[in-house]
Records
---
Amino acid sequence: MKIHGRRWVLRSSLVGVAVASMLAGVVGAQANAAPPPAPPSTGATSGILPAAKTILPSAVKIDLKNEFVRLPLHRGEFNGKTVWYVITEASEQGPADDLGLNFAPKLANASIGCQTCVQNVTLTGAPDNVFGEATVHFAGVPDFSPTRVLKAGPNGFPPSEATPGAVGDAKYSPFIRVAGSTTVYNAPIVAVGDGPFDVEHHTNTAERVLAVHPADEKDAPGPGPFHPASVDLLLVRGFDSGKPILYISTDSNDPTTAVIERATYAPALSGTAFSGGDDFLGSVRERIFPFVNGQTGLGNPQAQGLIHVIKDGHATEDASLGNTALLKALSEGGDPLNVQGDFPTLTENNRRAAYSPLWEAQFGEWTQKAIDQKLNVRQTDEFQILKLAAEHPDLLTAPGGKPYGSMKALIDCPVVGYLTTEPQEDLIKPVPGSAVDFPGAYSQK
C-alpha cells in the first residue's frame, strides 16, 4: 500500500500504551497508571442502518437487531438446475456503478496463473423478455447438503471437529466472468433449487442465509414490472482503521475457516494470485487480521478472536432467525471482530482502489507473556497490529509461536457498511515493511 500525502493521526492503541510502559521499565505498574481510552464498541445493536452508512449500494436494508443485510437475489442455472446468487463487487467502475456494487479493480487479477479461479459463465435471455434479467449458466456449484459441524476444542480453538456445511466442486468459484466480457464479478451462490428453502439447517442454502424472499410485486420499492427476489444474509462485525464495520462472509479455501465463518468451502480459491501478495503487482488479495486467543466474555469490551466467537458467539449452532440468542450475541459483539485492511471509504485514492473482497488471513496469537500482563486487548487497526508484531514478537506471533504473517487461509468477505463514522485514516503511520509503497509514498503534507 502506498501512503501518500497523509496527515498522520498519531494515536496509541491500548497495546501501544502498555508496550510503551514496558519499555520504560514499569512492567507491573500499569495498575497505578491512568487507564487508556476504551476501544471502539462494535456499534448499534438495534434498528436499521441508515442508508448513508451503507457501502454496498444495492443493499436493500441492514437490520442491526437481527444481524442481516438484505441483498437482491438473482436466478442462475447449473446443468439445467436452478441456483441463486448475489453480486457484491465488480472489477470495473462502470458495471459496479450500474449494478450498485463495490468497485474492486483487483478482482481483474483473480485468474492470473489460475484459470479455474474465475468461472467462465454464459448468459442467455428469454426471447420474450421485456424487462428482466438474463440467466447466468454457472460452470461450478456448491453442495449445501452436508451438515455443518463445529465442536469446541479444550480451549475453544482449535476446534476438536470442523466439517463444512457447504462444499464447492472443483469448478466452483464465487468469481465469475461472462463470456465476451472482461469484467470479473463476485457472485457467490447462496441457494440451490426452486424451494422451499431450508433457512434453519441450511440443507439447500448457504450457512448465512436467514430468509429468502421470492420476487413479488408487493415487495417492490415502486411501480414497474420488475420485482426482484431478495435474500437476508447474516452479517459479520469487525473493524477497519479503528472504526466498526459490517461485512458478510461467503467462501473460504480452508475447511476450518469455512466452518467458523459459516462460509462455503471453495478449494479453487487457493490458486488465486498470489500468496502473501497484498498490493503487489498482479495480486487479487488483501489482508485481514483475525486473533486466535484474545479475551473472551460477551460483555467484555476487550473481547476478540476465534476462541471468543466459539465461546461467546454461538459459533457451534446453526444460524437462523429463530435462534434469537445467537443473533443477540452477535449484535452485542460476539463475532471474532477481525480487522480488515483497505476499505472503500478510505481517504487516499490508492487505498480505496486496493480494496478486494478476497482477504488473506494473518492469524495472530498472543503469547503467554501478553496474556499474563493482560496485554491481549482488542485491536482495531491493521498498522497498529503490524507494528506490534514487528516490534514485540514477545507479545504477538502467528499460531504456534511462528513469525507473524499469512497463514494461507482466504475468505471472501464483501463489505456492506460501517456503524459509526466512516473509516478514513489509519490510526498510525505504517512501520517500514508493513506496506507496499512506491518512491515518495511517505511524503507528508
---
Amino acid sequence: MTNEWCGWREATERALYGPDDGFYTRPGGPGPAGHFRTSVHVSDLYAGAVATLLRRVDTALGHPDELALVDVGAGRGELLTGVLAVLPGEVAARLRPCAVERAARPRGLDPRIDWRGELPAPGSVTGLLFANEWLDNVPVDVVETDADGVPRRVLVRADGTERLGGPVDGADAEWLRRWWAPPLAPDAPGGTAPGALPPGLRAEIGRPRDEAWAQAVRTLRAGLAVAADYAHERGARPPFGSLTGFRDGREVSPVPDGSCDITAHVALDACAGPSAERLTQREALHALGVDGRRPPLALAATDPSGYVRALSSAGAAAELTDPAGLGGFGWLLEPVGGACAGLLTAGGA
C-alpha cells in the first residue's frame, strides 16, 4: 500500500481489492465470515428465503429451460451453497448458479457454481440476481464541510490520516444536491443558505453505487434484481456520514491499509430505478415465510426434540428480522420485465 494522499474511493479500492494485499482478495484470507456476520451467516433460513424467492421468479417467468441465480459479492459462496441445498431437484436441474466475486474461487466449492470476477454481460441472464451486502463495499468518496461551510473532498493516507482537499464539483456535487438531504446540500429545497453550513458535516457520495447497481440490473434479460444492505433515506442521512471499518468481528476505525473491511451505508433510494420497490428486510423475509414467533410450549411435552429445533429456528428468524438489527436492512427490488413485479407484496406472495 502507498501512503500518498488520495480520495477515499481510490484508497478503499486498493485496500479492499488490491491483487496481492486487499482485504477481500488476499490469498488464503477467511473472507467476510472471518470478520463479521451477514444475514447469510446467521442462519440457513436466509438461504431458504432466497430459494423461495427464486422459485417465485421461476414461476413468474414460466419455468424457463435455464434459470439463473447470480450472487453478487458472493464471499466464499455460502449463499449459493445454501440455496442449492434446499431447492427441489427439478428446479436445481435447470439452475445456473453464478458467483460474482473478486476473490479467488474457494477450494471445494460445488462444481455447479460458475465463479467469475465480473458481472455477466448485459441482457444475458434470466432469473434472480441477488446482492447481499455488496453495495456497501462499492468504494465511494467522502466529503466534509470546512470552516467556511464549503463541502470538500476528504483525502486520506494508508495509515488513516485525513485532510481536506478541493471543493466538490461536477457530477459528484450534483449527486449531493439531488440525494443528500439538507444541510449538506445547501441549495436543495428547504436547505440551509450557502455559507451557513457548520464545519465537520460529512457525507459519502453514492454515485458509484448507483452506477454499479444499474450495471447489475442490466445483466438481466428478464427477472428480478435484489440488493439487501445497510441503508438510509433522503431526509434522514447521517450528518457525520457512516464510513467505518470491521475486523475480527468488531467495529474499528476505517484505515485503508488492507487490514480491515471498509464500509458505508447505502443510499438505496438513489440507486432505485423507476420500477423499483423498497422494503425492510423484516418485511421481505416475512413475505417469504421467515417468522420469529416461538413454537407453542405444548410442543415441548409431545415432541421435545422438535420443540428445541423449532425454538432454535425461531431465534434465528428473530435475529434476521429484528427491526433494530438485520431486519432494518433495506431491500431494493428491481423487476426487469413485468412478470416479476410485486413478488413480495400480498398479491405476489
---
Amino acid sequence: MAFGWIDEQAELRRRAGLVRTLRPRAAESPLLDLASNDYLGLARHPEVTEGAARAARTWGGGSTGSRLVTGSTELHAELEGELADFCGFEAALVFSSGYAANLAAVTALAPHGSLIVSDAGNHASLIDGCRLARGTTQVAAHADPDAVRKALGGHEGPAVAVSDTVFSVDGDAAPLTGLAEACREHGAGLVLDDAHGLGVLGDGGRGAPHAAGLAGADDVVVTVTLSKSLGGQGGAVLGPSRVIGHLVNTARTFIFDTGLAPAAVGAALAALRLLRREPARAARAGEVARELHTRLTAAGLEAVRPDAAVVSVRAPSPEQAVRWAADCRAAGLSVGCFRPPSVPDGVSRLRLTARADLSGAEIERAVRVIGETRP
C-alpha cells in the first residue's frame, strides 16, 4: 500500500511519546504566554498592526511575485535599508522567512569544494542549509572555537563557519569573538544566525554580532528573523554589499520564492522604528529572563542560565515534559515543550520565553504554576 510505512512511523512516535499536534489558538486567550517568541511584546502593538494594515491597503494582500519579478516594493527596500543601518551592516536582503534566509546564506556561500563547519547545536534551518549546500559539512563540538579552528586547519580552499548566536533550545550564547578569531586565522567566512539576539542583545537590541564588535566586518554575514523580537513575519540576510549582490543572483530561496507580503514588511518596519525609539525594551527582556531563572532555581527546578530571552527548564522524560506543559496550560500558563528530535542532546525541556511586557506579578505567577505542576 502506498505510504503504508507512515502508519508504522506514527505508532513508533506514539510509543515514544513524541506525537505532535496542532492546537489552533483563538484571537484572545486567557493564558499567560511564555511560549511565543514575541520577546518585546510587539506582535499586537497598535503601531505594528497599523503598519501591517497600512501596507496591505497600499500595496495589496500579497507581493504578487518573486522579488526579481514583481515582488519587490519600495517598502521592501525601505526595510532593508533600515535593518542594515540599525544592525551596522552595509546591506540587507529580505526573505519570506528566517528559514529561507538561512538556506540562502549557507547554500550560496558554500560552493563545491568548500568546507562548512557547523556547530552541533545549530537550528534545523542551518542544518538543512548545510545539507543542501554543495560544500562538505563538518560538525564541530557545541560552542567550541578550538573545534572550529581544528576543522578549518585541515582544509584547503574556501571555508565558512556557521553558528547560531543564541541557541534556541537552552538560550545559551555562542562565543562569537572566539569563532571570528578562529575563522580569521584560516581566511574563512563566518555566518551567524541572530534570530534570538536581534531585539534582545547589543546596544538597544542591535543584536549579538553588534555587541561582539563584528557588525559590518567584511568576513561576517548575519541572518535574522522578523518573527521574534519584531513581532512579524519574514527574515533577512545582513552583510557586505557584494555578498548581498551574490545572494540576489544565486540564492534559490530568493530567486524562486514569492516575496514577503507587504503587510509583513510594514509590520516589521513599524516594529523596528518603535525599537529605535524605545531601546529599553531590549534590556527589559533580558531582565525578565534573568528573574525567571533566579526564581525557578530558587524553587529547586533545573533551569539553564539565560544569555538572552530563552529560559530552559529540564524535564525527566518526553512523556513527563508533555504532561508538565499540559498541566501548566490547564493552570492558565502557556509554555513551550521541546523533545527529541527537536533537541540535539535528547533532553526534554519546558522552554520559556521572557517578554519585555511581563509584569512582576506575571513572572511570580508563572514560576508558581511551573513549580506546582512539576512532575
